[in-house]
């Protein structure tokens, strides 16, 4: 099976829908944020604080390249991972990219009170969130083979079912899908 790579803004549901999709399909689930934290033995805010964003983005690109060499995985990317074209290329070489699309107001609600977001640690957090969201949305859309809305109208397990049905119908997923595809 080709990889299914979930992208989207912070709080869009990549980790929760990704884990449910892995349970549904029997595929291995990899959460890139957790993968990097394990590798560095540090939480993401500490990596940003001690080494800077550039260092984190390097780790992210190395992870994207390494994971894309393997197949049969559901990959939850970090919120900024598809902002680099080289990462998009790597993800696409090994699978299909699915955008979990959420309106800004849903993101605002889901991230309220969450202080573990280095990019939002500014004086005007609401504005930082809005600007980042508007900058990223077109890049996410351009990267995606498929866009699925996850505003919370359906429970996570049903979202996973909906994503899986749509992914299976993608010609890019079926090409060279192999015996288990
Ligand atoms: N369909 C849904 N229905 C209800 N709650 C949802 C749904 N999708 C996601 N959520 C909730 O939204 C929050 C964010 O989801 P999740 O952690 O999966 O997002 P994420 O994209 O991995 O975010 P990040 O990696 O930036 O923390 C979680 O509390 C999750 O339970
Ligand atoms: O949106 C982003 O740039 C980020 C999202 C998180 O998943 C982490 O990858 C990190 O906090 C950066
Ligand atoms: Mg996550």
How would you portray this structure in words?
- Catalyzes the specific phosphorylation of the 3-hydroxyl group of shikimic acid using ATP as a cosubstrate.
- It is found in: Cytoplasm.
- InterPro entries: P-loop_NTPase (IPR027417), Shikimate/glucono_kinase (IPR031322), Shikimate_kinase/TSH1 (IPR000623).
- It comes from Ethanoligenens harbinense (strain DSM 18485 / JCM 12961 / CGMCC 1.5033 / YUAN-3).
- With 181 residues, the protein is of the alpha/beta class.
- It has a single domain, classed as Rossmann fold.
- The protein contains 9 helices and 5 strands, in the order βαβαααβαβααβαα.
- It has helices at residues 14-25, 32-40, 44-51, 53-68, 85-94, 104-111, 125-143, 156-168, 171-174; strands at 3-7, 28-31, 73-76, 95-101, 146-149.
- A 5-stranded parallel sheet has the order 2-3-1-4-5, sandwiched between helices.
- α3 packs across α4.
How would the blueprint of this fold be written?
Blueprint: E1 3-7, H1 14-25, E2 28-31, H2 32-40, H3 44-51, H4 53-68, E3 73-76, H5 85-94, E4 95-101, H6 104-111, H7 125-143, E5 146-149, H8 156-168, H9 171-174
Helix pairs in contact: 1-8, 2-4, 3-4, 4-5
This protein binds adenosine-5'-triphosphate, (3R,4S,5R)-3,4,5-trihydroxycyclohex-1-ENE-1-carboxylic acid and magnesium ion (MG).
GO molecular function, one term: ATP binding
Cofactor: Mg(2+)
Keywords: Amino-acid biosynthesis, Aromatic amino acid biosynthesis, ATP-binding, Cytoplasm, Kinase, Magnesium, Metal-binding, Nucleotide-binding, Transferase
């Amino acid at each position: 099976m080709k990889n299914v790579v979930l992208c989207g803004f912070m709080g869009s549901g990549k980790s929760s829908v990704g884990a449910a999709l892995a349970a549904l399909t029997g595929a291995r689930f990899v959460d890139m944020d957790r993968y990097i934290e394990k590798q560095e033995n540090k939480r993401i805010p500490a990596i940003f604080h001690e080494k800077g964003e550039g260092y984190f983005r390097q780790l992210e690109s190395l992870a994207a390249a390494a994971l894309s060499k393997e197949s049969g995985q559901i990959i939850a990317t970090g919120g900024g991972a598809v902002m680099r074209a080289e990462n998009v290329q790597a993800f696409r070489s090994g699978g299909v990219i699915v955008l979990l699309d959420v309106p800004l107001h849903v993101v605002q609600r889901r991230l309220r009170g969450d202080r573990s977001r280095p990019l939002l640690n500014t004086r005007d957090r609401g504005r930082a969130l809005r600007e980042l969201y508007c900058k990223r949305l077109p890049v996410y859309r351009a990267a995606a083979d498929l866009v699925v809305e996850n505003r919370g109208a359906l429970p996570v397990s049903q979202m996973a079912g909906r994503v899986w049905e749509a992914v299976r119908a993608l010609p890019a997923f079926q090409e060279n899908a192999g015996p288990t595809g």
